[in-house]
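hey can u run this one w/ magnesium ion bound, need the structure tokens asap thx
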Amino acid sequence: MDYISRFLKKLQAQGWLDKDKALEIDKLIRDAKGSPDAEILQRIAKVKLLTDGQIGQIQAQLEEEESSGMEMAPKATICYIKDVVKSYKTPEGIFQALRGITLSIYRGEILAILGFSGSGKSTLLNILGLLATPDTGSRIFYNGTSYAGLNIKERDLLRRKKFGFIFQESHLLGHLTTVENVALPLRLQNYSNSVCLERAKHILLNFMNKAEQENADIFFSKKPNQLSGGQKQRVAAARAMVHEPEIIFADEPTGNLDFDTGQMVMEILLKAAKEKGTTVVLVTHNPSQARQSCGRFIWMENGLLKKNLATAMDSTLRLMKQLSGKDLRTR
Ligand SMILES: Nc1ncnc2c1ncn2[C@@H]1O[C@H](COP(=O)(O)OP(=O)(O)O)[C@@H](O)[C@H]1O
Ligand SMILES: [Mg+2]
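ok here u go:
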């Protein structure tokens, strides 16, 4: 298949090719017959049939297929990153926390990122979530938008509207009640006070247990210092979802909780995400959690993805057993 045909196939898989657009692009390609591929793509961009970001994302995906000799699954990627590098200046010199990460995140999937402490998981998540910037040359596309092309205002807007975050620490604001904390992402988008509170209560109820629901108003008006660790993380999970983000970045959200509490927080978060079709990227060092709740998992080591080792959960578990001397199947 020639390059343009493969390009169109990818476009289709992304869901970016409706009937009208397909016809227009077809015509443009026929008119441009004999021109180099790059020029055809330029023309498509020029008449705004596709954005530069959409074209860039598909070009990067095709590039990866060519270099790996493998065709990627014909699924829509919500996020595609290629050759992402992140260096820090340290007193000892430049330290590369990420050394060239290429990764597809498929729409609606629950993806676990596993790896030992220091392997670069948080760095990667922060970059994906627009909380940190990678080195130049790294390419990141979010649903056809290139991060490199965004100004600060556009980055803020994308992050606030489309992304939800949950970290190991709940990061609740101490002077606000649970409901006010949950409402924060909506406030940042300038919804009215009443809409903010109503939606916050509605989502928070899903993250409360029976007893808490029966005395909902009491729970709603509690301050963070009146909450247990598990309650705080459930409030943080509600806050991550209140604005109906497209993707949730979760960085060891149950890392500070005991096993059962962590399990419960994870279950309601992922249940809510699955119901809404929200994509979740979950960083965890708990393989049994990843195995239970995630559709796919990747293994990070020293700033690199170890693709071949993580093709099956069992091999990840075996690897961790070898490395740690413990059998994690029996947690
Ligand atoms: N601001 C920073 N300055 C220097 N080194 C950093 C900084 N942040 C992270 N690192 C280093 O980058 C590596 C990856 O860190 P991190 O992404 O937090 O790993 P993980 O989340 O997998 O534990 C670690 O070696 C860490 O020490
Ligand atoms: Mg981390």
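The chain has two domains: 3-68, 107-133+151-330. anyway lmk if its weird
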